[in-house]
Amino acid sequence: MPGTQLNPIHGAEPNKPTPQANTSSPELSALLLPLIEKHRGDVGVVIQHFPSGESFAYQADKPMSTASLIKLPLLMATYAKVHDGGVSLDTMITLTEADKVPGSGILTKHFSPGLTLSLRDAIQLMVAYSDNTATNLVIDTVGLDTTNTLMKKLGCDETRLNSKVFRRDTSNDMERSKAFGLGSTSANDMQRMLRALHDRSFVDQATSEQILKHLYDCEDRMKAARYLPANVKVAHKGGSVNAARTDAGIIDLPDGKGAILFCVLTMNNQDESWTDDNEGDVLSAKIGKAVYDYFVKKE
């Protein structure tokens, strides 16, 4: 089958590396810089409003750890391979004891070896519950390097899936694994991916909408969605490890006010706690609330 013909990803040119804010909006800078500057760790942020284009970016080219946010690029790579005919969503996968890994999700704790599930269901578990075992099943089905090949094609040079989850022995770049863990990205890379999904220009409209459906089903509301009204729809994926907390996606605004693309990356965090008030999670939550309120109230 021929390779996927990817439509161009629209949006602003990537920002130059800088520790300062790059923004079209002094108002957004005034809202967000005080939050960012208080954080005890490294931060990369992109905010962009549709359709106005009003934006904010901070250290947006800086390579950062993804934790489970790397599952979003993997999700896109999987659907690109499905579109090419290289794999089917109906492919059946059998869970073995050796497949089980710790961390987030439900397969390891609640299901027995011998369970069979479709690739479609493994993808849903990977995104909705951030299931680590399901993620490795997806990687095994589509190939470890498939994500990195796609990211290179998209110009997302800082985005790399380094290994299977909790399986560093599978690493395709041990130095990068040591530096970033499971994966790496930049806020600008995430902006490019999310803009393509928002515009329905990743592969084609139907593929983009299938991917967004998974992201809308993500059940994590402890980061950017935490302080938003319960009825606000957010298509996103986040990630958490001891010293890194991440979240990226699209917040749908009410009353025809458009949507907010967001990415908040933190790493080298001093707060490595696993409590509800973890500083990295709370930073994402405060940024999510600040930009939501700003654009909802904006005339």
From TrEMBL:
Reaction it catalyzes: a beta-lactam + H2O = a substituted beta-amino acid
Region spans: Disordered: 1-25
Organism taxonomic ancestry: Bacteria, Pseudomonadati, Planctomycetota, Planctomycetia, Pirellulales
Species name: Bremerella cremea
The keyword Hydrolase appears for this protein: yes
Record GO biological process: beta-lactam antibiotic catabolic process; response to antibiotic
Protein name: beta-lactamase
Family per similarity comment: Belongs to the class-A beta-lactamase family.
Enzyme Commission number: 3.5.2.6
